[in-house]
Amino acid sequence: MSCTASIGARFTLVLTGFRNDLARRRVLAFLQERIETSPAERSLPFTLLGQADLETGTRLSAELRELGAIVRLTRLDDDHEPAPPLAAVVPEAPAAVGPWPVSPRRVVRLLGLALRVPMLVVLGMAVIFTLRLRQIGEDLAELERATPIPRDRVTSARVPSPRVSRGYIKSLIIQGDSAAALQAIERDPEVKEDPTVLALKGDAYVKMSDWERARVAYERAVALDSKDPQVFVALAGIYRQQGRQTAAVDMLHRAKENGASGSDFESLVRVVVAEQDAESNFSSATSPHFTVSFDEGEDQAAARLVLSHLEDAYWTVGQKLEHYPNHRTPVVLYAAQDFQQVTHSPGWAGALYDGRIKVPVRGLHGSTPGLAKTLRHEYAHALVVSIAGPRCPVWLNEGVAMWAEDEEDGEREDWAFGAIRLSQAFGLARLERSFLQLSDRQAVAAYAQSYLAVRHIVTRYGQLPLRKLLTAFASTASTADAFRAVLSIELSTFEDELRFERDSVG
Predict the structure, then answer these.
(1) pLDDT tens figures, 377-391
(2) CATH assignment of 283-376, given 3.40.630.30, 1.10.3210.10, 3.40.30.160, 3.90.70.10?
(3) Among 161, 271, 304, 467, which has the highest number of CB atoms less than 10 A from its own CB?
């Protein structure tokens, strides 16, 4: 957000948690002294400033963060969630665990999954919908070649006919304006029961991470005899996320009957069938923001531990990205052998995000090294997919996930600069896609460069612009376009800044 755009804007400042008990005492004492207000013992999140100018909100949030508070500053007319009511009661997040030793070997182990498993392959929810979104774009391009749609008419969401209505809806979804797309559907009763429009309605809800309404829309399209294979694939993705693997397999079979094919699709079928076998007798438990599936006879303690760490991640990673989803993120605990068979990951992999956070159970306990950081990393991937969708470049996705692990700002910068010196720096275009073809040393350098790129965005431009940059990928055509739209710079200029930073340190 530019300073000019913020002049006159109003902001809300919300206290969402504390780093630890000492931070709690400091923050509460500060609030009592400075603004004569204090949240009750279990009354988080707590709105400190309901209507404030940017300078006041920024100053107070900086002071509170220094004391150890977890706060979020949100522009009232922005596209974030509305501020919670004063003293809204929710369960308090647990404190973060202690520091984690970092070494090139440890990084290769944690991140080396990328050397053997393609990044954001068909396993993830983002990629499940990639084919669907690609088809939308192709249909829209064909329609616009025949009948160009002026931009002012697109944003007005008027729907003069069913065919043009679909064009409007597709364009709005691609632009990231799902709310306007849904309004366009509601304004034209003639298209409400059109299977194609119902499928687009599901797509709009998916972009809003409203899985339940998306499910209802897709199911209605199927009930009205939709033959679009990608509708069945999308519905399978939602069933899969909800832990309904048998229903997901059925939808994939119907997708195949209606023409779905290709190596990606077949890989997806194999994965979901493997999930169905592994999770046939699983139970589930919930926390305020997560649902975990697990073997009830063996993994109850591990489930509680994972949920505790993830609730902490909800606040700590959410504060970094200014994003607090109102749906529960799915998590699965597997026996070590099942984890490898389902995810095709090496035996040492600590966890994986593919639309659900998957964790191997190997005697997890409270002192398991690096568990909290690993879960923060995977939860960050979930937030990136929720915000940016499938177009986010790999370097940005991985850089954000590594940055989200940090307990202290820039705690891995020395390692990252050293890793690049030992190998080579890549152009960001090379890091847009999977790191699969890189050697071990090159992969470490690629992750290090991704981390430093995100750190540079945060330190030079700020955390809110990083969040805006992720959001831009939901509607922009390229990384260069996203940088122009959000940071007002060319991507080549950003790379020059990174190169200058590396040279000055080296």
Answers:
(1) 999 999 999 898 878
(2) 3.40.30.160
(3) 467
